[in-house]
Amino acid sequence: MKHPIFLLPLLVVSALPAFTQKEKIAEIQRDILLMQDQIRAMQRSQDEKMAAMQVLVQQTLDSANKANTSVALLDAALRDRMKEQEKLLIAPVAGVGAKVETMSNDFAGLREAITDLSSRMGKLQNQIADINSAIKVIAAPPAPPPSSTATPAGPAGGPPAGVSAETLYNGALRDKSAGNADLAIEQFQNYLKWFGNTDLAPNAQYYIGEIKYLRGDLDGALMAFDTLLEKYPDNPKTSDAMLQKGRALVKAGFKAEARQEFTSLIKKFPNHDNAAKARTELAALSGPARAPVRNTKKR
Q1: What is the chain's alpha carbon radius of gyration, rounded to the nearest angstrom?
Q2: pLDDT class for 276, splitting at 50, 70, 90?
Q3: What's the pTM value of the predicted model, to 2 decimals?
Q4: What is the SS3 assignment for 196?
Q5: N or C: at which end does the chain have fewer Cβ atoms within 10 angstroms?
Q6: Which of 254, 236, 285 is nearest to 245 (CA)?
Q7: CATH of domain 135-144+159-284
Q8: The pLDDT of residue 280
Q9: Could you give the CA distance from residue 52 to residue 54 in angstroms, rounded to a whole number?
Q10: What are the pLDDT digits (tens) for 260-274?
Q11: How far apart are CA 30 and CA 24, in angstroms?
Q12: Phi, psi (rounded to 5 degrees) for 263
């Protein structure tokens, strides 16, 4: 039997592992508690940061809403201001536009008035020339009465001796004014035969047509006016011939050709007095146009 004193070391050695194991468990438990404290601290920190971020986000949203509200108010204020400015500017601009349009119309009217005045002055000059010719006719001695024998022709088919363009034209005007239509036509025809290249030749041709128109010889009048328009297309009597030709066509029943003649007159002389007369003639034309076309063959 062993002595108990020899068993003491064995007891001490066997008790050491159990004591060490408890310390390790206690240490692990301390570490776990420490970790739990750290986790809780981290959780609190995270919560605090999240709360701060939420506050910042809310503040940002509030600022954005305020900015949107301010922008909306500013936009509304700008729109209202622009509407006010537009109202203030519309009336003056409209007034300026109306004044410009009125001035344009005034200038157009002035231009037409000047053109009409020029036309009237040209017509007045023609009338003055006719008056001067009539004065010369009155001042000149009367022509001898026509004899049964023909007046001998001049050399090479020219005018007789002593017959000038002026005396022949003035004598024809005097006979026209006195109502001697046949004699006036004969003298105008002689004037055209002997002095067909002078400035008064278109007038002589026109007066032949006018005399025939007044006598009711519509075919003869139309032929005379056609001759003037073909042989002397640009002269002071052109518009008169076109107007009288249109009137003769109306009397003859050729309304379609009359409309065409009046329309040509208006197109060629839009600001002439005869154009206004042609418009009146066109307005007076009514009813169907005569179907047959006028025979323009010269006789």
Answers
A1: 60
A2: very high
A3: 0.49
A4: coil
A5: N
A6: 254
A7: 1.25.40.10
A8: 94
A9: 5
A10: 999 999 999 999 999
A11: 10
A12: -65, -40
